[in-house]
Specification:
The chain is of the alpha/beta class. Helices cover 26% and strands 28% of the residues. The chain contains ten helices and 18 strands. The strands form four sheets. Strands 3, 5, 6, 9, 10, 17 and 18 form a seven-stranded mixed sheet that branches. The chain has a six-stranded parallel sheet with strand order 13-12-11-14-15-16, sandwiched between helices. The chain has a three-stranded antiparallel sheet with strand order 2-1-4, with no helix packed on it. The two termini are 25 Å apart. Bound molecules: NADP nicotinamide-adenine-dinucleotide phosphate. The site of NADP nicotinamide-adenine-dinucleotide phosphate has 32 residues, from helix 1, helix 3, helix 4 and strand 12. The site of NADP nicotinamide-adenine-dinucleotide phosphate (NAP) has 32 residues, from helix 1, helix 3, helix 4 and strand 12.
Length: 342
């Protein structure tokens, strides 16, 4: 049986159980394609899974939601012209028919389905798209999960427009960084927070107006003084945590807080009066529909956006890559190089 190299997680709460192994090539169904992965990328979800902090973990698993590569084989019902094409993979599987939210069968590539941190991955043909020509394989691998989540948060849910002033928290994060790039491309004024002053400086050089360090005790007052006095039209947050309530002070009356993560844990007490009196909408969002993915690709192509890459590691250096993400070192995406292009 043909085999491939893959990063396999066998046990949770044990970083050492993530190992490069030889595993059997995945089966190809009639509507599937086999992609030879050129580059994969990390998402915080991979770390949550290793830490045992994700729902319904099934092991062993090949991690990885993001990937770019070349189609090397197609299932019997798939158009043969896909063979040899350079593609990027949409990791949102089986969204369903409702644009408002995913159906119960919805899954994210890379657990329970076998993911992209391997030489090959098998995915339904509906989940592959031509790689945008302005992106290298590394850049294309950095795009899917973060780009999709950011696009839906900003546009489908946040309905931001060029005259808006927005706040993005934790700007070093993979989703936050590309959300900033997309908002800036539209001419939106972006403020941000980070736990690292150097990342604030970097975000400013990229076009954000200003930001504050969320480790400072009075960060939200500082942000208010800095530019948020009239309030932000939209806040994009994936930190949550005990200080989430302070975002309700920073958002404009009639504005929206878009939430897609809880990196800092659950919220503390939320003052309901602020929500109804200011007529604030708190809107959850998760990844996105196939249409969101298509629109995201169109948007980044139109604006020639290249995702910010913090580092590219060879797959054999996967421990360093995971360490960076666990320690919150990154500004943007961490990419794993799996194979040479071509
Ligand atoms: N619902 C969905 O569809 C969806 C999709 C993608 C991600 N997520 C979730 O969203 C979160 C971010 O994902 P990611 O892949 O972008 O992760 P990531 O690259 O690891 O980024 C996490 C970032 O969170 C920021 N952060 C940490 N503590 C914070 C705090 N107290 N206040 C503000 N920011 C804080 C840090 O920003 P600095 O480095 O600037 O300090 C860090 O870089 C994760 O919880 C992930 O599970 C959800």
């Amino acid at each position: 049986m043909p085999k491939m190299n893959a990063l396999v997680l066998e046990e949770v709460r044990k970083f050492d159980s993530l190992q490069l192994q030889k595993v059997v090539l995945p089966d190809l169904g009639p509507f599937d394609v086999r992609v030879k992965i050129n580059a994969a990328a990390l998402n915080h979800r991979d770390v949550w899974i290793i830490q045992g902090l994700y729902a319904k973990i099934k092991l062993p698993v090949i991690l990885g939601s993001d990937g770019s590569g070349v189609v090397v084989e197609v299932g019997e019902s798939v158009d043969k012209t896909w063979e040899g094409k350079s593609v990027v993979i949409n990791p949102a599987l089986d969204w369903g028919d409702e644009p408002a939210a995913q159906q119960p069968q919805f899954r994210i590539l890379g657990m329970p389905d076998q993911g992209t941190q391997a030489e090959y991955v098998v995915v339904p043909v509906e989940n592959i798209h031509d790689k945008p020509s302005h992106l290298s394989f590394d850049e294309a691998a950095a795009l899917p999960l973060a780009g999709l989540t950011a696009f839906r948060a900003l546009f489908t849910q946040g309905e931001i427009g060029p005259s808006d002033v927005i706040l993005i928290t934790g700007i070093g994060g993979g989703v936050a960084a590309i959300a900033m790039q997309m908002a800036l491309a539209l001419g939106v004024k972006v403020y941000m927070t980070s736990g690292d002053d150097l990342k604030i400086k970097k975000a400013k050089t990229l076009g954000a107006i200003d930001g504050v360090n969320y480790h400072d005790k009075d960060w939200s007052t500082a942000l208010f003084t800095l530019g948020g006095k009239s309030g932000f039209n939209v806040v994009i947050d994936s930190a949550g945590g005990p200080e989430f309530g302070q975002l309700l002070d920073l958002v404009k009356a009639g504005g929206k807080v878009i939430t897609f993560g809880a990196t800092a844990g659950n919220t503390g007490d939320i003052n309901l009066r602020k929500i109804f009196w200011k007529q604030i909408r708190i809107q959850g969002t998760t990844m996105g529909t196939p249409e969101d993915f298509q629109n995201m690709l169109q948007f980044i192509t139109e604006h020639q956006i290249k995702p910010i890459i913090h580092a590219v590691y060879d797959i054999s250096d996967y421990r360093k890559a995971y360490q960076d993400m666990r320690d919150g070192q990154q500004f943007g995406k961490i990419v794993l190089k799996i194979a040479a292009s071509g």
